């Protein structure tokens, strides 16, 4: 059940959301289309390896996961024996805690203009081709963990990235 739910529905949501945001933001759509078309001259060239280094494609997918996290809630954790200090608060043992993506990612405390689709906020200095497009938003990117983290973080993350990059770039 974990593989069916985690590996299919979530990915479908991520891809549907990316298409939704691209259609709503024609400028981003155009930049991504140009990136894909200028990087490949045939469909066979679009592979897992060759799509890894497309900066705008990765930026669009990150911004999609931020604005429409396919896993909007947070999976629960139980506070261990003896309790714990979590984010500065003393929490007794046995309590259930969770950090929902849906609170963290659209929050203006973490992201500037959180309701606006800006893939450029994810471009890095190393993405030299698109350096001119880069936008420094002063975001708290450490708040962004769409795949969660720790020993129970998503085991399918590499597969999910491969599928998202391949499907979206082939479609475009
Ligand atoms: C965009 C796609 C995906 C997102 C955003 C995502 C996100 C997540 C998140 C937030 C968790 C919860 C981790 C936690 O409790 O801390 C999780 C768990 C999990 N994911 Fe994914 N996932 C994606 C795709 C996939 C794929 C493609 C697979 C496998 C085919 C997969 C398999 C799993 C499994 C088995 C778990 C449970 C891990 C555990 O409890 O140890 N996921 N995922």
TrEMBL record:
Top-rank lineage group of the source organism = Eukaryota
Question: Keywords in UniProt for this one?
Answer: Heme, Iron, Metal-binding, Monooxygenase, Oxidoreductase
Which Gene Ontology terms cover its molecular function?
Answer: heme binding; iron ion binding; monooxygenase activity; oxidoreductase activity, acting on paired donors, with incorporation or reduction of molecular oxygen
* Family of this protein: Belongs to the cytochrome P450 family.
Q: Which organism is it from?
A: Cudoniella acicularis
What is the name of the protein in this document?
Answer: Cytochrome P450
- PROSITE patterns, from UniProt? CYTOCHROME_P450
Residues bound to heme are 154
Pfam families xref list: p450 (PF00067)
InterPro entries from the xrefs?
Cyt_P450, Cyt_P450_CS, Cyt_P450_E_grp-I, Cyt_P450_sf, Cytochrome_P450_monoxygenase
